[in-house]
Design brief:
GO cellular component, one term: cytoplasm
Strand content: 15-25%
Helix content: 25-40%
CATH topology: Chloramphenicol Acetyltransferase
Radius of gyration: 20 Å
Structural class: alpha/beta
Number of strands: 8
Number of domains: 1
Pfam family, one: Condensation
CATH superfamily: Chloramphenicol acetyltransferase-like domain
Protein name: Condensation domain protein
GO molecular function: catalytic activity; phosphopantetheine binding
GO biological process, one term: amino acid activation for nonribosomal peptide biosynthetic process
CATH class: Alpha Beta
CATH architecture: 2-Layer Sandwich
Order of helices and strands: HHEHEHEEEHEEHHE
Largest sheet: 5 strands, mixed
Length: 267
């Protein structure tokens, strides 16, 4: 009888049965019913608590929702001159997000305490647009504004997005937008190095566990291989707040130039 029960359990697991339980997501504190509710909304890989700083950012995002003035929406607008492979760039963005799936976490504040949901399929939102007409800058700004609004919908949309805008045959604008709740200024250069290294065909090192950034906030760009709940549990008191670095390109100023070869490097 014991072996029959064991065979039944094995068959259930092979069929994809089961899921997260309250003990799987500690130190987040949710009931099984609440976990099941999140599973109905998303394909869930993990559920994590928020750090005190993230809780504050979520509060401000909720207060600013729909107003278009959330200062914690961070945008990097890069002008790229020369041949560019849009498909390869999209793959590079996907590679980075798969290494750091918490970049596209959803944030849920409908329970007693807020949580972040790490998706089982961490595909970053990608937008490719080919522009024509005279007023290209106005069209670019309209796209950028829509991207900023999207990352502020922390419950319904991923907090990290990428857009590639073709303005002429060899001129592109590469726009990376994120909410500060998943990525801080210290981590942004790490993300860019990994992204362009992947685009050029370089092998990336395994993600490393790190401590907190200079402002005391756990680094979103470098979670451990499975879950980082243990790291979140060590940050139990409010940390030093620092204003986010707004990286939106001011109108009229020259954009950064990055040369992107059209071919991958040889072996």
């Amino acid at each position: 009888m014991w072996f029959e029960a064991l065979r039944g359990i094995c068959a259930h697991v092979r069929a994809g049965g089961g899921g997260l339980t309250p003990s799987d997501i500690e130190p987040a504190r949710l009931s099984q019913q609440q976990i099941d509710e999140l599973h109905q909304r998303h394909r869930v890989a993990d559920i994590l608590p928020l750090t005190p700083l993230q809780q504050g950012l979520l509060f401000h995002a909720s207060a600013a929702h729909g107003s278009g003035d959330d200062v914690y929406a961070v945008q990097l607008d890069v002008a790229i001159t020369g041949p560019l492979d849009p498909h390869r760039l999209r793959e590079a963005v996907g590679t980075v997000v798969n290494r750091h799936p918490n970049l596209v976490a959803r944030f849920w504040d409908g329970f007693d305490e807020p949580v972040q949901v790490i998706p089982a399929d961490p595909a970053p939102p990608w937008r490719y647009v080919e522009l024509d007409g005279a007023d290209v800058e106005a069209q670019v700004e309209e796209i950028c504004a829509a991207e900023r609004a999207a990352v502020c919908d922390l419950n319904g949309q991923p907090a990290f997005r990428a857009a590639l805008i073709r303005v002429s045959e060899h001129q592109h604008r590469f726009v990376l937008t994120n909410h500060h709740i998943v990525l801080d200024g210290w981590s942004k250069p790490i993300l860019l190095r990994e992204l362009f290294a992947s685009y050029h065909g370089h092998r990336l090192p395994a993600p490393r566990r790190t401590a907190a950034s200079s402002d005391g906030w756990p680094i979103a760009i470098a979670p451990p291989p499975t879950r980082h709940g243990g790291k979140c549990s060590t940050v139990s008191t409010p940390q030093h707040w620092s204003h986010p670095q707004i990286e939106k390109r001011p109108g009229g100023e020259a954009s950064q130039r990055i040369a992107c070869p059209s071919k991958r490097p040889g072996p």
